[in-house]
Structure formats: C-alpha cells, structure tokens
C-alpha cells in the first residue's frame, strides 16, 4: 500500500505498508537456525508493518466486543505508515461478559512477541520491543488497562511504554461492570508507574441509537471514568458528533460487520473519526516514544489545521 510523504499525523505517513495475517500454523518468513523452532502466535494476528528497512516500535491493538481484528485494518495501516508495527490479535470469536480469557491471552501474546514476532516480519523489518504500546478499543480498551494494572493474575514481562484506550468501556453502567471490574471509582487510582496514557472518547457513545439498544459507551463506565482514574502523564480527547464504532473500516462485512452500523449511534461517515483516532495516536506516540511533541502541542493548543473532527473535550494531567 502506497502512502504519501505528508508529515500531518491525520494523513498517511511516509512509509509504505503491508498487511499480514499470522495464524497458529503460520511459518517463519526469516529462515535462520533459531527461527525453525520459533513458536507460532497463540492467537491469529493481523499485522500492519512498514516494508522499508528499519526498526520500528510495536503497537498492540485489542478489538472491541464481538468484533473482528480485520475491521481495524484501515486504522492500523494509517498508524503503521508513520513508522509503527501494528499487531491486532483475534482474541475470541464468541465471548460472554467475563474478560479473564482475554486478559490471559493478551499477556501470552505479549510474551510471544519477544521470541516469535521478529521471525514472521519481512526480513528488512525489525520490531523495537523496548518501545511497546498496549492499546484497545471498547472492551479491548478495558482489557488493555487490566493487563497493564497486573491485578488479575495474568501479566507479561514485556514492559509497556505507553497505554491507549480508544473509547474504552467497562460494562453496561455503573454497578454493572463486566468481570473482572477495572474501574474503581477512585480518582487517579490507576497506579502504573508514570506510564503515559491516552484516552480517546466518542461524543455520541453515550447516546442510545434507539430505545431497543443501550448506549455503546454508557456513562459511568466509559472514557471519562477511565481518564478520571488515570495518573499523569495522561491525555483525554473527545470527538464531537462521532460514535463508538466510527473508527472501524468503511466496509465491515458479514453479519457482525453490518451490525456495527446498526447498534451504536454513529456519525455521518467513518473516515473523519478514523483519521482523528489515527492522528491522535500517532501524535501521542511521536511525543512519548520519540521526543517529538510538535503535533501533539499543536492539537492541544487548537492550532493544528489538519484535525478532521471537532474536539468536544480536551484534558491533560501532567
């Protein structure tokens, strides 16, 4: 996939990218004596990677409830084009309310990355796991925070450099959290040893599409409460007039893909929200992984001309 040389984080970056699918029967692409015994990933993985020679930070993206990792391919390619390797595991096909299996699987995949990922990437591409980012959308955002907090019996030795919640959700309402509950309702209770955190919210997420369905990001268990419990440094952006699933691909197929247009209150189109999420993520990672905060500061100060949506709310804890 070709990408422009634009430095605007909300547009494609300078790197050409490719999308790979790794499953439990995937074979190593880099054939070396050590790679012949390299284990396959614990779960099927969708990987967006630059194709040019280099070493790149690694971002794991956990999908939302009953969604497919393939629904995030356009967002993944956008972020990858700015010099990142994106990895989206398919954590499950069917799941109940309990997220313990997702927490366990995420920790297992994180452990696998250090021994297996390098062997499945193009030979000229090297993952830099000293700059590892854990992120998730919706229920996947809750799972990401749960893994980072290391409170639920499953954790990884891989150090998390930054943590990102994309419209994270912990249940259907306050007092109705899905097990295990992550939110404590205590301000600044997420003690993560100064890991920089980014929380992105959708302005329409709290609004029900119709009386038959609850809001997709209900008050009391959504992005606002997650940010409220963050310690600094932490950033919070909310996109006005866009919904909980508006960062997904334009064309999400199958029954689950079609239902993603029907269950949540949505904006007029997905591209602006997807570009917003991608651009905020890129700007945040450039600031905290590479020391280049120019775009993030412009967004904060309201003088970035490329922001594709209206920012409804902004907060920062330093």
UniProtKB/TrEMBL annotation:
Pathway(s) where this gene product acts: Porphyrin-containing compound metabolism; chlorophyll degradation
Domain of life of the organism encoding this protein: Eukaryota
UniProt KW keywords: Chlorophyll catabolism, Cytoplasm, Hydrolase
Subcellular location: Cytoplasm, Cytosol
Pfam family, one: Chlorophyllase
InterPro entries cross-referenced by the UniProt entry: AB_hydrolase_fold, Chlorophyllase, Chlorophyllase-like
Gene3D superfamilies: alpha/beta hydrolase
GO molecular function, one term: chlorophyllase activity
Catalytic activity: a chlorophyll + H2O = a chlorophyllide + phytol + H(+)
Cellular component aspect of the GO annotation: cytosol
SUPFAM superfamilies xrefs: alpha/beta-Hydrolases (SSF53474)
One annotated GO biological process: chlorophyll catabolic process
Main localization (coarse): cytoplasm
UniProt-listed Enzyme Commission number(s): 3.1.1.14
Membership in a protein family: Belongs to the AB hydrolase superfamily. Lipase family.
Name of the protein: chlorophyllase
Species this protein is from: Arabidopsis lyrata subsp. lyrata (Lyre-leaved rock-cress)
Organism lineage string: Eukaryota, Viridiplantae, Streptophyta, Embryophyta, Tracheophyta
Gene giving rise to this polypeptide: ATCLH2
């Amino acid at each position: 996939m070709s990408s422009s040389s634009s430095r605007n984080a909300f547009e494609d970056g300078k790197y050409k990218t490719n999308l790979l699918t790794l499953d439990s029967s995937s074979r190593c692409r880099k054939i070396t004596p050590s790679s012949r015994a390299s284990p396959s990933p614990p779960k099927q993985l969708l990987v967006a990677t630059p194709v040019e020679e280099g070493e790149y930070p690694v971002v794991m993206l956990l999908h939302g409830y009953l969604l497919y990792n393939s629904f995030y391919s356009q967002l993944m390619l956008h972020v990858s084009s700015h010099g990142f390797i994106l990895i989206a595991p398919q954590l499950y096909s069917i799941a109940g309310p309990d997220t313990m299996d997702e927490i366990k699987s995420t920790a297992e995949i994180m452990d696998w990355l250090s021994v297996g990922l390098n062997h499945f990437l193009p030979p000229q591409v090297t993952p830099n796991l000293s700059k590892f980012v854990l992120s998730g959308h919706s229920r996947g955002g809750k799972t990401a925070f749960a893994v980072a907090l290391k409170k639920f019996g499953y954790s990884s030795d891989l150090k998390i450099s930054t943590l990102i919640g994309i419209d994270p959700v912990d249940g259907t309402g306050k007092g109705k959290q899905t097990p295990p509950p992550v939110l404590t309702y205590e301000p600044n209770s997420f003690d993560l040893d100064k890991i920089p955190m980014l929380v992105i919210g959708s302005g329409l997420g709290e609004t029900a599409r119709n009386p038959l369905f609850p809001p997709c990001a209900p008050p009391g268990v959504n992005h606002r409460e997650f940010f409220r419990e963050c310690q600094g440094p932490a950033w919070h952006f909310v996109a006005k007039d866009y919904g909980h699933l508006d960062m997904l691909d334009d064309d999400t197929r199958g029954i689950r893909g079609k239902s993603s247009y029907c269950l949540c209150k949505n904006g007029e189109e997905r591209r602006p929200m997807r570009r917003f999420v991608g651009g905020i993520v890129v700007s945040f990672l450039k600031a905290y992984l590479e020391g280049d905060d120019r775009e993030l500061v412009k967004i904060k100060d309201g003088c970035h001309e490329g922001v594709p949506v209206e920012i409804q709310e902004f907060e920062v804890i330093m």
